C-alpha cells in the first residue's frame, strides 16, 4: 500500500492547472492525504472534483472560513474497496482563551481496520507568534486524542514545525521564529514520545541533509533548495513491521509544499 501526503495549497487550483492529474497519473497512490484544500462543501460540489476523480472515495473536513485550511483523505476504490468509512474523529473544542481552531477543518481521519489514518494540518504560530499559545494548546489536544484511540495510528500532514536543525536550511537564523520555536518543537517531540510515534523518514535517513518539503515563494528558495522539512508521516510503534520506506518527492510541483510518501507491506 502506497500512501502520500501533500499540502496542496488549494485543491481546485492544482486540479485546474493539471498538476494534480499529473501527480496521480505518475505515482498512482492507493491513498492520498491532502492539507490546505481551501474548499468547502458547496465549492466542492460545484467544482466537479468528486466526479472528476471518482476512482477515489473522498473524505473531507471543511473550514467554516471560505477558501481557508481544510483537510482530506482519498482512498482508491479499486485497490481497497468502497467500504472504507470516515471516522467521526475530531479534535475537542478549544476554549476561546486560545482562539478556536476546531472550525478550520484541520483533521480528517479514516479507519482502515488495523489502524486509523489521520490527515492533519497543524495551526501555524504566525510570523508574530500571535497563535503560538493556540498552537501549544492544540498540540496537547492532538496528543490527548491519539492516546485515547484504541488502535494504532498513522498521522501525516503539515505539522508547521521543523523538529531538528537538520530539518531546515538555516537553523541558526530561524531559532525562536515561527516554525522553529522551543514551544513548537517541544510539542512535536511530546507527540512522538507520548503517543509512541516514529518519524519514519528521519529514522531511515538520520544524517540526510537538504531533504525539505516546503519552500517560501521568495528569493528562488525552491530552485536553490532553501527549505524546511515540516511535512511528516508519523507511525505507531506497533506498525513498524509493516513499513517498507518513506520518501520525499521534491520534483512534484503545484504547491509550495511537495508530497511525502509512505509504503506499507
Structure summarized in a few sentences:
By secondary structure, the protein is an alpha+beta fold. Helices cover 26% and strands 23% of the residues. It has a single domain (2-264), classed as Endonuclease/exonuclease/phosphatase (Deoxyribonuclease I, Chain A).
How many domains? 1
* Strands ordered across the widest β-sheet: 3-4-2-1-12-11
Query: What do the pLDDT scores average to?
Result: 91
**Overall 3D form:** globular
What is the annotated CATH architecture?
Answer: 4-Layer Sandwich
What would your notes on this structure say?
This protein is of the alpha+beta class. It has one domain (2-264): Deoxyribonuclease I, Chain A, CATH 3.60.10. The protein has nine helices and twelve strands. Strand 6 and strand 7 form a beta hairpin. Helix 6 packs parallel to helix 8. The longest helix is centred in the middle third of the chain and has 17 residues, at 132-148. The radius of gyration is 17 Å and the shape is globular. The protein starts with a strand and ends with a strand. Mean pLDDT is 91; it is low at 86-96.
List the helices and strands and how they pair.
Elements: E1 2-7, H1 11-16, H2 19-27, E2 31-35, H3 41-47, H4 49-52, E3 56-61, E4 71-76, H5 77-80, E5 85-86, E6 107-111, E7 116-121, H6 132-148, E8 153-158, H7 171-174, H8 182-194, E9 197-199, H9 200-204, E10 231-236, E11 243-248, E12 260-264
Parallel strand pairs: 1-2, 7-8
Antiparallel strand pairs: 1-12, 2-4, 3-4, 5-6, 6-7, 8-10, 9-10, 11-12
Helix pairs in contact: 6-8
